[in-house]
Amino acid sequence: MNLKESATRVAVLRVLRDTVDAAYEAERRTVLDGLRAARAEFALKSIRVTLPDETPVATITLIDPQPAVVVADEDAFTAWVAANHPCEVETLVRVRPGWQRKFLTHLAALDSVADPHTGEVIPGLTALSASAPRSFSLRPLPGGPEEITRAWRSGQLDLRQLLTGMGEESPVARKEAHGR
Description:
Elements: H1 3-42, E1 46-50, E2 56-63, E3 68-71, H2 74-84, E4 89-90, E5 94-95, H3 97-105, E6 125-128, E7 135-140, H4 144-154, H5 159-164, H6 171-177
Antiparallel strand pairs: 1-2, 2-7, 3-6, 4-5
């Protein structure tokens, strides 16, 4: 292959990659919205991904954010740490960031954030409730990527349909229309 052919391949592959990336991000948002709705309606957190012939290839699972403790009033928290853990306060009168991160991870995200050793409510801290899931994980099953590649190469999956939107001509819709 000469330089001109290689340059053409690079340009074409770049456009294809960008098209695939855009289709992936759009479909990922659709799946996340669908999983959130399924969670709300059916308490569903995971789904098994199958090819049109029902070959399992992956599992998609909502990732639930955990409630977290955050500093809501820096001055009040710093004053409390200075009084209770003076070695953890820097001379510029702030809580050392590393210690703060570590300390906050050991606190329970309850209405009143309290020192786990004394039970004292810690001024300047507040608990944030967990947000709605913002992501999900996709874990291919053993052999799943190979099955997807096989289905694509055999024509069972139409790459053009996957990149332009599933619509009524999707492999799933074709399968349902033919009763398979």
